[in-house]
Q: What sequence folds into this?
């Protein structure tokens, strides 16, 4: 092997090492960008929680308590209590393992009217979790009537 061939071989090895290092840097950058986005979303949630009156709710809340049956996305079911209900969601005290963003099925009765629909877990706290209802216009009308009777 000549001196030029040996030097060429050494340079190729160094180039492969640099390409591997660059690939690892790009993978690290992608992980850091994803982690940064998650942290930014968490900061936005915390900022909304810390600003009084700026919690993003658009529906009037009614302080009532009633039984709720719930089932998480894994099929685990539990009974609990709904509190602080609005047309958009409720706070539910229930021993059910849930994470923010998870979908669940909720069943309850208000003013003798049965309700069953999907809800998204918005926040999880020690005492329970807040959900946002996913309901069709007919259910929304019926729920609005039941809530207005509770508020009266």
A:
């Amino acid at each position: 092997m000549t001196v030029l061939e040996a030097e060429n071989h050494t340079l190729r090895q160094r180039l492969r090492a640099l390409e591997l290092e660059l690939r690892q840097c790009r993978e690290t950058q992608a992980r850091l960008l994803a982690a940064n986005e998650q942290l930014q979303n968490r900061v936005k949630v915390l900022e909304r929680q810390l600003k009084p009156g700026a919690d993003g709710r658009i529906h009037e809340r009614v302080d009532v308590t009633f039984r709720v049956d719930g089932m998480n996305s894994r099929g685990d079911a539990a009974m609990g209590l709904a509190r602080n209900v609005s047309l958009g969601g409720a706070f539910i005290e229930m021993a059910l393992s849930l994470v923010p963003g998870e979908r669940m099925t909720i069943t309850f009765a208000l003013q003798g009217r049965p309700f069953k629909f999907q809800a998204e877990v918005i926040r999880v706290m020690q005492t329970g979790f807040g959900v946002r209802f996913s309901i069709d216009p007919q259910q929304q009308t019926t729920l609005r009537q039941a809530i207005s009777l509770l508020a009266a």
